[in-house]
Amino acid sequence: MTNQLTGAEAMVRMLQAHGVTDMFGLCGDTTLPFYDALARSDHGIRHFLTRDERHAAYMADGYARVTGKPGVCEGPSGGGATYILPGVVEANESSVPILAITTDVATTSRGKYPLTELDQQSLFQPLTKWNTSLDDASRLPAMVRAAFRAMTTGTPGATHLALPFDTQKAPVDEAEIWADERHRAFPAERKAPDPEAVEEAARLLANAENAIIICGGGPVLSGGEAALAHVANLLQVPVATTVSGQGSIAETDPLALGVVGSNGGNPATRAAVDAADVILFVGCRAGSVTTERWRSPGRDKVILHIDSDPMVIGANYSTAVAMNGDARLSLEALGRALAAQPNVRDQNGAARAAAAWKAKLADFEPLANSLDRPIRPEAVMAALMTVLDDDATVVADPGTPCPYFSAHYRWRKPGRRFITNRAHGALGYALAASMGAHVGRPDVKTIAAMGDGSFGFACGEFETMVRYRMPITSIVFSNATYGWIKAGQNSGFGQRFYNVDFNRTDHAAVARAFGVKSWTVEDPAELKKVHAEAVNHDGPTLVDVISQPLHEAAAPVSEWVA
Q1: Which site in 87, 126, 348, 459 is 20 to 30 Å from 423, CA atoms measured?
Q2: Per-residue DSSP letter, 300
Q3: Burial classification of residue 338, based on how many CB atoms lie within 10 Å of its CB (0-12 exposed, 13-18 middle, 19 or more buried)
Q4: How many whole angstroms separate alpha carbon 296 and alpha carbon 103?
């Protein structure tokens, strides 16, 4: 005789075995056995009840980004499975490992039109790195191990497990409850690049005259910041980042160029890329925004590319050297190869980076000090830089906040300080992702920056924030429009503003109704004082900034439709 668990108990034990200490989700009737197992078991897992499943997935995403551990979210069948999808696909396309568990109707009722039936495995198939339905309870532990292995190895990504009602009640052999400890964190089982490719890349870089490094999210995801700094210093080349790559290098580093591309870049950073003879992409897809629709860099450059996904390399540019491997291991190998080169040319990177920052700051400072009303977003950036400490985490929605933080907020330390959803750019991400980030890293200040469009997507989760007393400061750029789309209509569609404006909401009053201490700021002279009060308060706070709309502002965006 063997000791038996129910499938629901086995799921709880398997999460525990994989080092899960926090999860986010929402209850449903198909989830009852799973919740009962959580209630009865001694597992050490904190379950955060959210107000919808989409935000549970965003919380898992933010949590994973700051902890280096897979984030876990869950929801019920039917609507729960469909609501959780946006967060799952965002994480997957951002190479962030989250596990979504959605309970399901019993396998024995399929095809009989039970309430909430849908083909979950087919639904999640194109949106995840790996997914399955746990139809056989005896295989549940093995499939959970497979999900964690898929999430954490190679290029990280999202996985999904459908958990039918009868599987939750079926017996599972307790002897099957074990985990591979290597898959508790990511990236696991790192792959090193081909040594010959590394040697060739080192030769080309050592002999370049005007090389540049462009980092996507890979260096931060892999913990490769120190290895990147070593390579950059050996070559004395400037290091640029994508929006997702911010944190690869401190932006106060003499070799830091800042963000490049159509979102957050500017003419000076674009000129630096265009002047380069050799481009090294690191953990970067070289997509439409980073390259301004594949025009910067041009096709005449020598391209070197490091990425953990071999399908990324060469997808957009003819590549002289492909280094398929983990970003940290690849940069470490490249550093060793460069150190062995007989003559490495100094490429004057600090002066090139300083010239770009000088031009950028000349444009920024007059706007940051402006007393114009509505408030200029640059003034909000300047105020925050004086209030927040170096370890603060800023989570920004992709509308108004993203380009301003990317272009103008100078991160003084490398590492994960800035989070934004650049894969699909759904509004309403920042509030929930900031909550996951706070749960994962509670000892630092966390900021959620959003436009008022995003506020409307997400404000129900303020109740969750208050219930768990999370001392997050939310900043709303309030301009009563879907600003990015209105700016696109302004620049490319003859200023025919159609269906982009909405009524102004008193966001401070809404937040107060949930129990959030809130302020409204219309005078830019009050920004520093109010931000300081909000950041130093010991509970949830919100600052509603009556701000300039994007189509009227000097936004650091070269193209509104990328």
Answers
A1: 459
A2: T
A3: buried
A4: 46
Cα–Cα distances (Å) from 102 to 34, 83, 99, 123, 290, in that order, read: 10, 11, 10, 12, 35
Per-residue pLDDT at 496:
97
**β strands within 190-342, DSSP E:** 212-215, 239-241, 256-259, 278-282, 302-307, 321-324
List of the chain residues with pLDDT < 50: 1
Q: Give the sign of the dihedral formed by CA 525, CA 529, CA 534, CA 535.
A: positive
CB 259 within 8 A of CB 282: no
Could you tell me where the beta strands, DSSP code E, fall in 190-300?
Answer: 212-215, 239-241, 256-259, 278-282
Q: pLDDT tens, 388-404?
A: 999 999 999 999 999 99
Global pTM reads: 0.97
Question: In this predicted structure, what is the pLDDT of residue 561?
Answer: 82
Structure tokens at 439: 């749960």
Q: Which residues contact 13 (CB under 8 A, 6 or more apart)?
A: 5, 41, 43, 174, 177
Q: Give me the pLDDT at residue 1, please.
A: 47
Predicted confidence (pLDDT) per residue in 416-449, tens digit: 999 999 999 999 999 999 999 999 999 999 999 9
C-alpha to C-alpha distances, 473 to 462, 540, 548, nearest whole angstrom:
11, 6, 21
Whole-angstrom distance, CA of residue 541 vs CA of residue 538: 9
Q: How many residues does the chain have?
A: 562
Spatial separation of the C-alpha atoms in residues 542 and 327, rounded to whole Å: 37
Of 251, 245, 256, 243, nearest in space to 289 by CA: 243
